[in-house]
UniProtKB/TrEMBL annotation:
Domain (Cupin type-2) ranges: 34-101
Record-given protein name: Pectin degradation protein KdgF
Classification lineage: Bacteria, Pseudomonadati, Planctomycetota, Planctomycetia, Gemmatales
InterPro entries: Bacilysin_H2HPP_isomerase, Cupin_2, RmlC-like_jellyroll, RmlC_Cupin_sf
Signal peptide: none
Length: 109
């Protein structure tokens, strides 16, 4: 076991919003979450106190953040301030995103 090089078994594994799988890892102050959204999957409207930033890794998804809507693809970044409602919908293919949270979301450890 290494603090610096975690293996999948040391990560959090969760299913959210029906069929979206996430793998998470937290340091002392921030948390990464690798999100796998199935084709046409929906991460429905929600909000949390945590600040969230991320990047699309694969596929395309439409992000609804506050009053703005934009379809993002690999390499595109997004930012969601704490307390802002948001939703994500994958297109006809699976999508993958990497989220960063501050502070850590304990429910996803």
């Amino acid at each position: 076991m290494s603090r610096f090089f975690p293996v999948p078994g040391e990560c959090g594994h969760h299913t959210i919003f029906g069929a979206t799988h996430i793998r998470t890892y937290a340091g002392d102050h921030l948390q990464l979450s690798l999100v796998d959204i199935p084709a046409q999957g929906v991460v429905d409207w929600h909000q949390h106190a945590n600040e969230q930033a991320g990047m699309m890794v694969a596929g395309q998804a439409t992000f609804y953040i506050g009053e703005e809507v934009k379809t993002l693809g690999p390499g595109d970044f997004y930012f969601i301030p704490g307390g802002v409602r948001h939703r994500v919908v994958a297109d006809a293919n699976p999508a993958q995103a990497l989220d960063v949270f501050y502070p850590i979301r304990d429910e996803y450890r």
